Amino acid sequence: MQRRNVIVVGAGPVGTVAALACARHGLSVLLLEKEDRIDDSPRASTTQPPTLEILAELGLIDEYLRVGLIARTFQFWDRPTLELVAEFDFARLQGETAYPFVVQTEQHKLANMAIARLRGMPNAEVQMGARVTGLSQDGETVTVNTEHQTLAADYVIGADGGRSTVRKALDIEFEGYTWPERFLVITTKFDFQAAFGCCFRNYMADPQEWTNLFKVAGDDLEGRWRAVFNTREDEKDEEALSDAAVRARLSRIYVPERERDYLHLNLYAVHQRVAKNFRKGRVYLCGDAAHVNNPIGGLGLNSGIHEAWELAGLLNRALRGDAVELDAYEGKRRPLNIKYVQEQTIANKKRLEEKDPALRERRFLELKQMAQDPQRHKAFLIRASLLESSR
Ligand SMILES: Cc1cc2nc3c(=O)[nH]c(=O)nc-3n(C[C@H](O)[C@H](O)[C@H](O)COP(=O)(O)OP(=O)(O)OC[C@H]3O[C@@H](n4cnc5c(N)ncnc54)[C@H](O)[C@@H]3O)c2cc1C
Q1: Which residues face 225 on adjacent strands?
Q2: Which of 31, 45, 106, 107 has most ligand 1 atoms within 8 Å of its beta carbon, as the pocket-test mutant?
Q3: Are 129 and 149 a contacting pair, CB within 8 Å?
Q4: What pLDDT, in 10s, does the model give residues 295-325?
């Protein structure tokens, strides 16, 4: 049995970055993915400055920028009145990062890019259609079972998403809760920027039903918009996905009747959960396998990539014989996820859905004042972009 330094389970954006980072350290790496191809349904796209710094270190940044859209600003809107409440500008982060902007690049592009690099490296192997079914370990070796083979590694990184087989095999609790509503993503070619002058990242508050509105490049680089809505708690999936309900939702974000055709629908359950442990023995959890959150603010995937990067460095040092504290990863990353990802995404959601008129006004006023005060504006961006947590 060929033994690898590291086996990474799951070729999502986090697993592929973890595998590429390990391979670039010179470690022997095997990446296992259960699907035959990378899922390209609309999911994350917002890439924050510290994540762009990591992609630059991995040699991916030029390609990444080429297939994405640069978004320097994001805006808060009052949806019922279509009033712009506040705008935040990443240009204020000049000097703090080489990338004072966000890039909207769909996550499947990152995974495919990293896989292409891995395929060109002699110390890396990628197996698609290889579902991990279980694993076991002793003090020296982790044994990984797929449907067709038994594999061995010094360390395993479980980056196999929210329903992680690795997490379940380790019997690690996924603490937290699931929101009662679901989120619906409508992809459309309607040009919201031309229609009402918004930017590429917009958060639209409404006590009845809020909307996040983003522009992405698309595989054809022609551009398209994703509008994310909450469903009603009692709304059935069939109703939310019905043509009439979708068109009604588009009407509520000011799309004229003749322009309400759409390209794609995606309805999904949303959770706030953090694994009780990020490591057991020689097996680590990373990305959605370790934590899930609502996507408002674009933080979950970014934090997963930061973990992948850090973990690859830690395992490299351990495998080279440096004295490293293997628990340092969990000791640092778990509290960071709770403070910067769970707390912020929950606050972001509350801000959009606030029903109390007085509190709603107060939140809008806070945003306006923050945007107008240069110091608070910058401090807000440093936190919201995960620069604070990654420093
Ligand atoms: C609609 C939507 C919008 C989002 N928007 C944002 C955003 O704007 N910003 C942001 O930061 N985050 C966002 N997120 C969250 C983001 O998509 C996830 O955080 C991200 O996909 C996590 O990446 P991952 O690599 O950890 O897991 P995944 O992308 O779930 O990848 C896991 C991989 O493991 C594979 N796998 C699973 N089980 C096995 C097994 N047993 N054996 C082998 N392979 C296996 C899967 O097939 C998959 O390829 C969004 C999520 C959704 C649903």
Answers
A1: 188, 215
A2: 107
A3: no
A4: 999 999 999 999 999 999 999 999 999 988 9
